[in-house]
Amino acid sequence: MCRLIETVKIFNGKVFNIDYHNQRLNNSRKTLFGRDDEIDLVMHVHVTDLMGDGLYKCRILYSEVVESVEFAPYTKRHLKTLKMVHSDQLRYDHKFEDRRHIDELFAHRGNCDDILIIQDHRLTDTSIGNIALFDGKMWFTPEFSLLKGTKRQKLLDEKKIFRKDIRVADLKNYLKLSIFNAMIEFGEIEIPVSAIK
What we know:
Shape: globular
CATH architecture of the largest domain: Alpha-Beta Barrel
Number of strands: 12
Strand order of the largest sheet: 10-9-8-11-12
Structural class: alpha+beta
Helix content: 10-25%
């Protein structure tokens, strides 16, 4: 049986975007396991006084039911360069625990900090998160992302980013790229397009 993960951000005792995580978790349970009952992660993510202040990652492992919940301090990565890698076969439409194929692609990053996965000449995601590109006026996220991230969906709902089919040949039309996920806020990591190899 496949297992999946939700990663929830906790900062100074506050749990972030739990509604978006609930939605994705229950959508995955329904699609993959045929489960119509809903899980509320609020009942599983218990922030204790022992954690104290600071940034924590809550890792929820689940299949049909929640199997485990773990907390760990989170250290942000510093990314400055991306290596484009091509993989037309990779599928990651649910946040699976098994990331072997992504890890295999990551091994081809060379001297770069992370990878930018290309499928059918289109930009998708990095190994750690969704992306958006800035054209000088607006931010656009690839229409064909590998994973519909919770932070991506929130930014789309707030109309801070917009979907667009972005091909490798279109990179010249953009100035910079932002990487974000449940733990990394939009705008925290920005890379000039010139730093994409």
